[in-house]
Amino acid sequence: MATTDKIALPQQDPTVSAVAPLREPLFRSLWIAAVISYTGTWMQNVGAGWLMTQLNPSPFLVGMVLTAGTLPVFLVMLPAGAIADMVDRRRLLLFAQWWMVIASASLGILALTHHVSPYGLLLFTFLLGLGTVLNDPAWQAITPEVVSRENHSAAVALNSAGFNVARAVGPALAGFVIAWSDSGTVFLLNAVSFFGVIVFLYRWKRPSPPRVKSPRLMESLLEGLRYVRQSSVVQSVLVRTGVFSLAATAIWALMPLLAQPFGSTGFGFLVGSFGVGALAGAVVLPRIRPRMSLDGLIAAAIITLAAVTVASGRVHQLGWLCLVMFIGGTAWIGILASFNYAAQTMAPTWVRARSLSMYLLVMQGGMSVGSAIWGGVAARIGVPSALSWAGLALVAGLLTIRSHRLSFLDLELAPAVVRD
């Protein structure tokens, strides 16, 4: 059934500079810390994927690295969203950040001492994923609390740009570090990268919002589920995100195998090229968006990403493959930025974190399932053929546009209350 509701997407005042949020000290401090943390995370991802190719180059196990990192989404994402709507988000974020420090540092020590097995690597990747899931709903929900309303749209764009700066820098750094040392050093550097966010959170004097009586966790979960069931706005975002993530993850899950002939440095260049492309796309996106409908923009970007996915399995020279990844990055940011805008503002304040947890569950859960699927498909029919089928799946997913269209509407962006 076609939805007639409009997806919430804040409209930026054309007179507001794209970098205006960086003039606000609170947002600027968090943004810098976040970019450093994102860089460490991308280094971690490259290190884990590359280490698995050294421990066991099975396409299934290599695909399972991404699956292990996103599997916690199925286990705790919805409770994490409910908790983020019930407790002080600052304290929840601190707990999650320290959890990830300990998990990453432990894996680094084990890797440096050669005491990590393929399944040990998957276990610690899973533990890091747990920390990420605890962190993500609260992290996305605090954006309206650290930036002024008029700069909110630009702040979301800057967050995407910062993530893609890290995507460009982190993998290349990881490749060089692995070539100089090994993956264990990369994991230790990731542990260090969390401290900027931790320091920010300790120093952040978060205003005390109104306090209301908190429901029990199960009541809060059911309340959030009822809202999602009744909101065609949220349902449209979830359907479109799920269909996309299942197919799109193939290129990420199989990239370590594409890079294997070029060594760890080549792997870093491939992922870095994708990140540079995403950064370039983030710069161009504000100029393209006013000229296209949201559905038109997403459709064009998905078709481009589908072509890139097919081509990545057919191109065997590093330079050309880096160019393919660059183009893929520009398409990726157009899709993800559009979905992220919609998700951050598709629900009112009182249920925002729970709605975001649904979105993250679908996005990351789809990638987890998709990684296992495409790893298994690649093991049976080969990497190039698996990527070709993934490209076709991306195009087939465009059929959902007809019944789940996305458009624009402003929603309330006030900070949430704290529940007793």
Features:
420 residues; mainly alpha; disordered C terminus; 17 helices; Growth Hormone, Chain: A; two-stranded parallel sheet
Structure explained in plain terms:
The protein has 420 residues and is mainly α. The protein has a single domain, classed as MFS general substrate transporter like domains (Growth Hormone, Chain: A). Helix content is 75%, strand content 1%. It has 17 helices and two strands. A two-stranded parallel ribbon has the order 1-2.
Enumerate the strands of the largest sheet in spatial order, edge to edge or round the barrel: 1-2
Largest sheet: 2 strands, parallel
CATH superfamily: MFS general substrate transporter like domains
Number of domains: 1
Structure summary:
The protein has 420 residues and is mostly helical.
Please give the structural blueprint.
Layout: H1 25-55, H2 59-70, H3 72-86, H4 89-112, H5 118-141, H6 143-146, H7 152-180, H8 183-193, H9 195-203, E1 211-212, H10 217-230, H11 232-248, H12 250-259, H13 263-288, H14 294-312, H15 318-344, H16 352-381, H17 383-396, E2 418-419
